[in-house]
Amino acid sequence: MNKLTNDIVASKLEEIGTLLRLAGANEFKAIAFDRAARTIEGLQEDIADIIDDKKLTSIKGIGKSIAQDIYTYAETGNIPVLDDLKDKVPEGLIKWLSISGLGPKKIYKIHSELNITEIDELKDKCKDGSVASLSGMGAKSADKILKSIEWMEQFSERCHLDEAMHIADVMVESLSGLDGVQRISVAGSLRRRTETIGDIDILIAAEGDYINSIFDTFTSHPSVVEILGRGDTKSSVRTNEGRQADLRIVKPEQFPAALMYFTGSKEHNVVMRQRARDRNMALNEYGLFRLNSEGNTDFDSPVKTSSEKDIYENVGLHFVPPELREDRNEFNWFEENSEVNLLEEKDIKGVLHAHSTYSDGKKSILEMAEACIERGYEYLGITDHSRTAAYAGGLSIDSLKKQWKEIDRINNSFQKEGVNFTVLKGIESDILSDGSLDYPEDILKEFDFIIASVHSSLEMPADKMLERYKRAIENPYTSIVGHPTGRLLLRRDGSSVDINKLIEFAVEHDTAIEINANPWRLDLDWRYGLKAKKEGLMSAICPDAHTIEGIDDIKYGVAIARKGWFEKERILNTKSAENLLAWFKKGKG
Ligand code: DGT
Ligand code: CA
Ligand code: CA
Ligand code: ZN
């Protein structure tokens, strides 16, 4: 089996603790496993070495029996007590753990006294008063459980990036001006800008009496419908959108380490802790500390750090932007390089991929253009749907010609008024099943640029889909491939086309692949960023706007581009209109 790490062993022990409670075992027994898990997680030494030396019982908090479990695990890859528990605890009960406010002890009580295992049964028993009548429960608890289940069913557990960013903005806005708030930041997956978000994490540095009043403001915020927990350092709430938000408050001197810890990712943190250990230091959520002569964390000997940058420098790295903290290539890169010239929102000069009332957009070309001007952009590439996309009002050749005339008129009047703005003639052409584009060549050659997208037969086999894309990319009139997988996040998977091959082929043919900035798509996926960087893939941040507000989705696209290591230079719509048109022409040459 793979080498045991401290984190793996700790998580197994934690699982045993939880399952013991679900099985109704003695609470002290469960606590012993929790404590052992926490001890091992915080250990400076590698558990594998301690196992080799047979020294587990010399660690405080690890008794003979748990030590034996770990030795068995190291030898066989199994822990009998865990396997027994998995057999014993009904699978339905495990799902109850995701009902907020319902811990394993209560779950066992309800399960054993009412003899139920499924969430649906639990719902019924909450409604008919059975849960309320159990000792220690009451009507209020039953109600709370019912409400949590309803939340769970109404909303998926994760949400889109735009929703999370919006909730966090509102919260941070209401907290940042409070007395005693010395520093504030979002953390977690939101700060790392992953495409979907589980819960929202906010971190504040504050001291003394301020802490309580900051938590008061947080838990009584108008958007809060339920307080999930309130402690001395952490409070959790549910917002009226059905989302969970966690606020943690730490001492100002702990803020940099806490921010790093709660930003994650877990994988990034694991490597950071190891790098600290390799340099005779210990890194945890409280700070960076020296080790004492026994090799343990010396909490009296902190390494002074006033920012995340300081912590990174202490472990031999330049500052790693939060978006890149996924344990992909960041450690290699930031050992050598002080930065990546990551794309920024202000670099975006124009809008590509927008729909108008000619197809399924809600606004006219002029209205969309004026909204772009208001936002400081220099051009708008209109890309309505092509004729095969009848369901989306795809354009016949006649409508196209009408549209081109209208665009010419708009551009002329801008020029006359001295407005530095250009509407580009584009199309989002369907890629037909055989890979061809949706108009004859004499029409295709008239566009300034073409986005080629798959909207039908997404489920065709991967190799056929790749061939289909290859035909489209080979077509000299294709400038940009649209939303390459066609996925809708949290709703449906996209096609199974081999994105690595698609990237290679696109680069070979001077074709870009868009980052569709709609928060339901965010497609190209950022996980292909390193491949794209290696090949030199060009991309564009495309809002796929159907409304004026849709234009502002560009910010999510920029977030994902940063997460995918895209520099400004590889994003087409950072170019001036003139340079952009020249790039589009190059592909046709
Ligand atoms: P999410 O909420 O599922 O979208 O993802 P995150 O990354 O926000 O995860 P969350 O909210 O559970 O925790 C926030 C951060 O806290 C996470 O990115 C890393 C850190 N963290 C939480 N639990 C652990 C842990 O058990 N070990 C380590 N090393 N870090 C943790
Ligand atoms: Ca989170
Ligand atoms: Ca959290
Ligand atoms: Zn499309």
Describe this structure in words.
By secondary structure, the protein is of the alpha/beta class. It folds into four domains: 6-154, DNA polymerase beta, N-terminal domain-like (DNA polymerase, domain 1), CATH 1.10.150.110; 159-250, 2-Layer Sandwich (Beta Polymerase, domain 2); 261-336, DNA polymerase, thumb domain (Beta Polymerase, domain 3, 2-Layer Sandwich), CATH 3.30.210; 345-586, Metal-dependent hydrolases (TIM Barrel, Alpha-Beta Barrel). It has 25 helices and 18 strands. Strands 11-12-13-14-15-16 form a six-stranded parallel sheet. α1 runs antiparallel to α2 (27-41), α1 (6-22) packs parallel to α7 and α20 runs parallel beside α21. The model has no long low-confidence stretch (mean pLDDT 94). Bound molecules: 2'-deoxyguanosine-5'-triphosphate (DGT), calcium ion (2 copies) and zinc ion (ZN). Residues 188, 199, 201, 246 line the site of one calcium ion.
